[in-house]
Specification:
190 residues, mainly beta, Porin, 2 helices
Length: 190
């Protein structure tokens, strides 16, 4: 992304915050269970926390931190373990008013990623990467106007991790760093 495009994106985001009247925004904090699944890897359950800021009208923002651990296999052999701490920021657009509110979301994230090679590849050791990726998704907030609400959502994360590329090249299979990320959580509003 070039500098002028970044400046335009920052200006648009700033304008959205100004128009959305942040002085009347509602803040919530909560926890969630999450399930993640990447192509060529096992699906795993973990959890994390989210912070949401809901502006009057249809806009909101979310900050989310999670933990995930995924193992990739080639044939019947485990060849790579990925441990990640995703830190995501999302812009949320709530579609309908009421107690049950569907929303769409999109944003970006920073992913602290530790890769450990396993089995015949264990001599390659491990490495750490700090990568950025985008995501899009949607969900439902239940009890949107109450002091405590529940949410469920799913998002697809677009990500590149060099150790997964190395496994793909070595074994001629098609594992991907991109993954599906589903959450179910509770939000306490302040």
């Amino acid at each position: 992304m070039n500098i002028s495009r970044k400046i335009r994106l920052a200006a648009l985001t700033s304008a959205l915050f100004i128009v959305a009247s942040p002085a009347r925004a509602q803040f919530s904090l909560g926890g969630h269970a999450s399930y993640t699944k990447a192509s060529g890897a096992d699906g795993t359950w973990y959890g994390g926390a989210q912070l949401r800021l809901r502006f009057p009208g249809p806009l909101g923002v979310e900050g989310l931190i999670d933990y995930r651990r995924t193992t990739y296999s080639a044939g019947s052999e485990d060849v790579l373990r990925i441990e990640q701490y995703p830190v995501q920021a999302s812009l949320m657009l709530f579609i309908l008013p009421g107690q049950v509110q569907p929303y769409v979301l999109g944003g970006g994230g920073w992913y602290y990623t530790k890769s450990t090679f396993l089995g015949a590849q264990s001599a390659l050791g491990s490495d750490t990467q700090h990568t950025f990726g985008g995501h899009v998704g949607g969900g439902l907030e239940l009890g949107a106007k109450a002091k405590v609400s529940l949410h469920v959502d799913v998002r697809y994360v677009f990500l590149g991790v060099s150790s997964i590329d190395a496994i793909r090249d070595r074994y001629n299979n098609n594992p991907k760093a991109d993954f599906w990320h589903g959450t179910a959580g509770i939000n306490f509003k302040f």
